[in-house]
Amino acid sequence: MKKTVLRQYAKLIAKVGINVQKGQEVFVAAELDQPEFVQMVVEECYRLGAKKVIVDWDYQPLAKVHYRWRSNKTLATMANYEEARWQHYVDTIPCRIYLISEDPDGLKGINQLKVAKAQQARYQIIKPYRDQIENKYQWCIAAVPGVAWAKKLFPKLSKRQAVEKLWEAILDASRVNDDPIAAWNAHNEDLAKRCKYLNALGIKTLEYRSSNGTNFRVGMMEKGEFKGGGDTSLQGIYFNPNIPTEEVFISPKKGEAEGIVYSTKPLSYQGQLIENFSIRFEKGKAVEVHAEKNEALLQKLIEMDEGAAYLGECALVPYNSPIQNSGLLFYNTLFDENAACHLALGKGFADTIQGFENLSLEECREMGLNDSMVHEDFMIGSEDLEIDAHTRDGKVVPIFRNGNWAF
Q1: Among 369, 377, 405, 400, which residue's Cα sits nearest to residue 261?
Q2: Which residue among 17, 19, 57, 210 is least enclosed by CB atoms within 10 Å?
Q3: Does the reported pTM lie above 0.70?
Q4: Please, are residues 184 and 170 in contact by the beta-carbon 8 Å criterion?
Q5: What are phi and psi of 170, to 5 degrees?
Q6: Of 215, 329, 322, nearest to 278 (Cα)?
Q7: Separate counts of helices (H) and strands (E) for the chain
């Protein structure tokens, strides 16, 4: 891939993604796949005035080794220096960039019970720190190609050709064209207009129907509102948390979901793929799951904590979206969730509540915002998906017809 194009992408992540401000610190999480591009991102952050940029390198095969050889107690324990870093996040509110490239099947074969118990134990320590920085910092998830990921998408190509092809797909989906910043400004404007329309309806419930068997209704919080594209932190800084993004989303009211939904794309979770699955909800809770592949892993997901079996997000994405139209199944949630309507199990977003900046997290949760250590999106959008909004004044308004916007 041409370095001039990659430089544009790096600028997009630094400026439009996290929108780093002068004097801010930036933490970058990346795999070992594209070190030259990571260097570009770091340089662009410094050009925008970053005080310090720290890169945390990861390597998925090494993580697999750790899970195999470390004891349950060691995996579940957080050392003092790890807690000190979380306290540093609280004290300085740095920006966060996540450059994902891992193998969708890269953690296949690990002891999932061991992993789950470790994550549950560590989350209890991390949660107080996370709550203190919630909605205060800028963050951005973007992607770069990894060899194993690229070969998953393009198995007949050589490694070099597959990586180049995946670069092309990532950049195209991320609107890295002649003027990516202008393209993102226009895209954010369109998403904002759709949010404005939806928020003016006064939606009480959303009802989903599809010929694959999806028949589902979910309730909204009275002060809930749709968001999409860019967001503004509590420090007043506008940023884009996902590159790419096509969704308009809201956090539903905990306890108000009934019916069954069927997946339309695989879910990549814990380095493994869950495929062809369904989830049935009663009184807001996932009470029954089935999957052709990795059903036990899906069951483990909804048992991670009390909130993992409840919904944290309802996202609307037209079937006629750029990622869907690419014809690619990315085996990566960042992309596949932006090819189809999706739901998310687990943690909800406080900033989808009107006036959240004047509320505590506890008050948001009392209003119906779900809380959990997980937030896992799964895709339910299909070519014939229909969604109706039932409004608080008794109207039924079509939102989706034939998988696309009805307005």
Answers
A1: 377
A2: 57
A3: yes
A4: no
A5: -65, -45
A6: 215
A7: 13, 20
